[in-house]
Each structure stands twice: as C-alpha cells, then as structure tokens.
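Sequence only, no structure available. Ideas?
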Amino acid sequence: MKRICLVCQNVDCKSRGSEEIMKELQQRVADQGLTDLEVKPYLCFGACQEGPNVVLYPEKSWYAGVKKEDLDDIMKHIAGGPHVTRLDTIDTSLKELIYQLLETGVF
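Reply:
I predicted one. Tokens follow.
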C-alpha cells in the first residue's frame, strides 16, 4: 500500500505556511527517491487553530503546528525513525474521526 502524507491547505493552515511546507516535503521525498510515499494537499482536518497540520497515512501520525524547521524530524520519521512526539498535540477524538474518513478513501 502506498503511503500518503497529507498537508492541510485550508485558509488558516495556508496563512501559517502549509503550502511551502507541502512543496518542501514533496521536494525532499523526490530527492530521497521515496517512491512509496506521495505528498498531497488536503482540504481541511478540522484543527485549524493547531495548523499547519500534516497527517501520515496509513500509519496514522498527525503533526500539528508544523514549521519548516520540523521537516528534518518528520522526514526521519517517514524513513522509519521515531514519531515526532512534540508535534502530536491533536485531541484523540478528532484524530479518530479524521482517520475514519481517510479509511473510506476520502483524500
């Protein structure tokens, strides 16, 4: 199964730099030849106040408040390293709701 990295592109997240974060992640994934991972935009995860939000699926990792300086750690996680716990701040019930939506193929 292909892994997906979804980056919120709604107004609040975009105003905090999510578009640049998505482009940087896309470039890093391409540079590292990670053909099993696709970086894609996502309309909204419903945690606007916590953005920019990045979700890795199917492993169900949600990173909130992502900044460019966090991308090294996120890329290490993508490559098999540890989960970036300092960015895992979203309420569990919201995470589960979004993960259920993603499991239906809504992305």
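The chain has one domain: 3-103.
Hope that gets you unstuck.
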